[in-house]
Amino acid sequence: MKIGICSDHAGVEYKAKLISYLLGKGYDVVNFGTDSTDSCDYPDFAHPLGKAVEKGECNLGIAICGTGNGMAMTLNHHKGIRAGLAWNTAVGKLVKEHNNANVLVLPARFISYQMAVSIVRAWLSTQFAGGRHQRRIDKIPV
Questions:
Q1: CATH code: domain of residue 6
Q2: Which residues contact 38 (CB under 8 A, 6 or more apart)?
Q3: Which of 83, 113, 122, 127 has a CB 3.0–4.6 Å from the CB of 93, allowing a cystine?
Q4: One of 9, 40, 47, 98 is an active-site residue; which one?
Q5: Mapped to the 3 state alphabet, what secondary structure does 9-61 carry?
Q6: pLDDT tens digit string along 73-84?
Q7: Does the residue 142 lie in any domain?
Q8: What is the total count of domains within the chain?
């Protein structure tokens, strides 16, 4: 499985650690940047990730910024992207189980790195429940 990952300056440290974590678990990882703590604009990194997941070049994506909101808002403008913001493991599980999120968004300034790993683990190990949840997803415009 190929996972795309991006961040802005607020999430770059977590991103670097998560890349190592994911590689250690056997995932292929594509880094869409940034790789610097210099101030930058999150859409510059969210759009390439969104396009890669849209086109099937990456199976899933992870995006990290200060609050997670900027990345989520940007990513959700891409056709077929369901970016879910999660701040604990329960939400990380539910964005996959109920919303079939194909991009996980993390708020680096509001969670610890240990929590980020727990959320990623929960999200990756959870299956979409389908059923009534699919009916709801079908009502989201693409």
A1: 3.40.1400.10
A2: 9
A3: 122
A4: 98
A5: CCCHHHHHHHHHHHHHCCCEEEECCCCCCCCCCCHHHHHHHHHHHHCCCCCEE
A6: 999 999 999 999
A7: no
A8: 1
- Determine which one of 65, 77, 78, 133 is catalytic: 65
Q: Is 9 a catalytic residue?
A: no
Please state the pTM of the whole predicted model: 0.97
* Residue 53 near residue 29, CB atoms below 8 Å: no
Sign of CA dihedral 14, 15, 20, 23: positive
C-alpha 41/C-alpha 56 separation (Å) is: 24
Whether residue 101 lies inside any domain: the answer is yes
- Give the residue carrying structure tokens 């990380």: 92
Check if 6 is active-site. no
Which range of residues forms the domain containing residue 44?
A: 2-137
pLDDT tens digits along 39-48: 999 999 999 9
